[in-house]
Amino acid sequence: MLTAVLCLVVAGVVAGGLASGSRGGPVTARLTAVTSQPASAPYPGDGVPAFGDAAHLAGLAGLTLSAPATALAADPVGSGYWVAAADGGVFSFGDAGFYGSMGGQWLYAPVVGMAATPDGKGYWLVAADGGVFSFGDAGFYGSMGGHVLNQPVVGMAATSDGGGYWLVAGDGGIFSFGDAHFYGSAASQNLGTWVTGMAAAPHGAGYWLVAATAAVLPFGDAASYGPLPNDPPFSPTTAIAATPDGKGYWLLQPDDGPIAFRPPPGSTVTAQGSQVVSAAAARIGLDPADTQGLFCNPYGPCEPWCALFATWAWQQVGVPVPSDAFVGNVYGWAASHTQVLGPAAAVVPGDAIFYGTGTANIAQAPHMGIVAQRWPDGAITTVEGDAGPQPNGLFGVVTNGPFFPLQSMDSAAVGMPTYGFAVP
């Protein structure tokens, strides 16, 4: 049935790395945080769309992040919210106060979720391995750190009295701590995507889960204000935050704002690689040519275009790689003209990543992207074309990660093995 290389759907804003370390336990992978400052003023633009009675306060268009935004929490007593990035940086909007972050500290796994205390004078952060960090007047009631998870944790929500919280995993499974009660999960639902975040109903008797496609799933007494699971807007979404009265919520869609991909401390970055990443990151967003027909794109013919995008990014800095829609051909060109590396290699930004099991055909070589960051623990963040969770033919350029290349098959954000890398 396939007549051209199929760039499979991979979500770009979900932190999917599976770290086996935990608070107080053995550590085999670490992620460093580099951002610690709150946003100093509201920034206009998109990135945090509002539903129900939620007011649009600010977006991400004027905020340049060093890592993708992965978490969102609303101020329960004011008209603001916080956004947290995968590196642990916290940014405050509206009248939300800043009470600290994981900026400048070692993390075993990327930050993926956030929840605020009832008085808005504190918040929790949760990492992909289930570890919980408390700030301000937030209390600690336990975590999933040190436990074996079927899928990484992707979000959290706090009870109305601040005496407990829930954690949610990528498969929709719910973990309750403190006085948090269980009101159902999406673990047994056939969503066709994965859960990326959650928010609590105002009276503590329910919660919302949000999927990567922006579909919102209510549980308990949480009301639905859209988007529906069968009719979402299909914009890569990483988090949800509810208004204080529970009659609306915001969704976090970080690919709508610019990401600078500042290198973590101690990482190796070449001038050419930095230029490749800058060119790729400048194109993050929906495909502007997708209305012309299935797989139409700005980088080549109307066909699956992840490889066309990656070769275009290399061409912007003078790499003489030919435009090609077949991922296997791009790998073969690099093997003959530059250098290819194995999936365990210490790559640098600007390198290409290849997913699959080989290069002989489209089944073996389904997708590729550009490495944007490599963390000291080996986790990477990528920029990938013809990706999303958008419907087939409505893809775009998205961020993906952080995830560990050797564990990408088991990551909800990738779901494919990493075959190797190539140097431009």
Q: Count every helix, treating DSSP H or I runs of 4 or more residues as helices.
A: 3
Instruction: Tell me the radius of gyration.
Output: 20 Å
The coarse silhouette is globular
Question: Helix and strand string, N-terminal first?
Answer: EEEEEEEEEEEEEEEEEHEHHEEEEEE
Please state the average pLDDT score: 80
Flag low-confidence runs: 1-6, 9-45
- Count the E strands: 24
Which strand order do you get reading across the main beta sheet?
A: 18-23-22-21-20-24-19
- Class of secondary structure makeup: mainly beta
Question: What portion of residues belong to β-strands?
Answer: 25-35%
Kindly state the percentage of residues in helix: under 10%
Secondary-structure blueprint:
Layout: E1 31-32, E2 50-52, E3 69-74, E4 81-85, E5 90-93, E6 106-107, E7 111-116, E8 122-127, E9 132-136, E10 153-158, E11 164-169, E12 174-178, E13 195-200, E14 206-211, E15 216-220, E16 239-242, E17 248-252, H1 271-281, E18 285-286, H2 306-315, H3 327-337, E19 339-341, E20 352-355, E21 367-374, E22 380-387, E23 396-403, E24 418-423
Antiparallel strand pairs: 1-6, 2-17, 3-4, 4-5, 7-8, 8-9, 10-11, 11-12, 13-14, 14-15, 16-17, 18-23, 19-24, 20-21, 20-24, 21-22, 22-23
Helix pairs in contact: 1-2
